[in-house]
Amino acid sequence: MAILILNRFPAKLVFFKEWLQELGEELILFTPSYYEQDFPEYDVVRGFENYVYSSLVEIEALHLHQERPIRRVLALDESDILRAARIRERLGLPGQDVASAEAYRDKVVMKGLLADRVQCPPYRRLETGVDLYEFVQEHGLPLVVKPVDGMGAMNTTVVRTEADLQLLYRKGRLTGMMVEVYVPGDMYEIDGLVAHGRVELVSVGIYNDACLNYQENEGLYIELLHPNEEMYQRMRAMTEQVLAILPTPEHTSFHCEIFHTPDDELVFCEIASRTAGGRISECVRQAYGVELDEAWSKLSCGLNVPLPETNEPRVLSAVYLIPKQVGRLVGMIDSFPFDWVKEYQPRMQPGMVSKGQLAAADTVGSVVFVAKDRAELEARYAELLAYIEQHVIWAAEEERVESGQ
C-alpha cells in the first residue's frame, strides 16, 4: 500500500520521508513541476504545471491508485485540503471528507454553521456589485471584502471610504468573494492539534495590527501568550466550541482567528483545518516541543505521536515577518547576533527588487525568537526591530537607474 502526499511546499519545509519512515510504505508525492527534481528520495514523484488549480492532480491520483493502491492521502496546504478530501471520498479512504473540508475552506459555509451559537460579524456571499451595495445599505462602512476560500489575508480589502467602495464596484462581478462588517480591536490566533477526536494542544498568540494592514509595510508580529493569561483561556474556550460545532476531522492541526473588541467581546473571524503559516508553527515548536505538521502527518497514517502532558510552555516565543518595501534591496542580514533568535529564514537577497507586499506573509524574511516571559519578549522585540532597521536597507528603483547600475 502507498501514502499519497499532495505537497505545494519546497523540500526545505517538509520532511515526509523522515516523518513516515517507520511505516515502511511507498510514498507518492505530487508537487509543482518546479519542485519535481527536489524530492529524489521518494518512491514516486509527479510534477504538475499550474499545480494549485490543475484538475490533473486528482485525475492522476485516481489513475495511479489502480496500479499502486493508496491507503491514505496527506495534504498540509490550504489549497490541497478540498481536493485531498475529494480523492479520499472517491477511493473510499479514511480522513477528512468533503463536507468537513468545505466547512473549513468556505468561510460562508463555515459561518453558516456557527453563527447561531458563536458570535460572528454580519456577512454575505457576493456575486455582483449589487450584492455589495445592498450589504452597505444595511450595515454601512467600514467593511471587509475577501475571498471565501482565501488565506494569509491575500486579496483582502478593508473598505473604509466611499472611494474604496467605488473601486470594488468597478470590478463588476465579485464571484468567489464575501463581505463582512469590519470588527475593531485586537486579533488573536489560536493554533493546535486535534488527535483521535480530542483537542490535545492549544497555543494562543496575538497579532499586531499589520495582518490586514500589510500594505503599510509595518511588518507582522505575533507573540504567544502564557496559558495562565485570561485571554489565553477565553480564546481557547471559544476555539474548542468552534471545533465541536464544525465537522472536525479525527486528526488535524488547526489555525483559528478571533477578534477581541474594545467592548470586551469575542467575535469569531475564521478557522482552517491546517497548520498556520508565517512560521507560527515554529513558535509553537519552540514553546511546546511539537512540530504540528509532523504530528498531523503521523496521526493521519496511524502512527503514535507523543504529546505534552500539560500545556505549560517551555519558553514564550514570537515571530516577526520583515516587511517588503517598494524598491531594490541593497542591504540584508546574513544572521542575527542574538542567541535568543532560534530561526531566521531570509527570502530576499541584495539586488532583488520588490513592488511591496502582496500578502501578510509576503516578506523579506522571518525571525523566530524566545524569552522567559512576556516582558523579556517585548524587550527583545524592540532590540530586534532596531537591528533590522539598521541592516535591512532599501533604495528606490530610480536610484539604480540614475547610477547606471
Automatic annotation (TrEMBL):
Domain ATP-grasp: 110-301
Alphabetical list of Gene3D superfamilies matching this protein: 3.40.50.20, ATP-grasp fold, A domain, ATP-grasp fold, B domain
GO biological process: one example: purine nucleotide biosynthetic process
Keyword list, A-Z: ATP-binding, Ligase, Nucleotide-binding, Purine biosynthesis
Keyword match Amino-acid biosynthesis: no
Membrane-spanning residues: none
GO MF annotation: an example: ligase activity
Pfam family, one: ATP-grasp
Protein name: ATP-grasp domain-containing protein
Organism in which the protein naturally occurs: Tumebacillus avium
Lineage: Bacteria, Bacillati, Bacillota, Bacilli, Bacillales
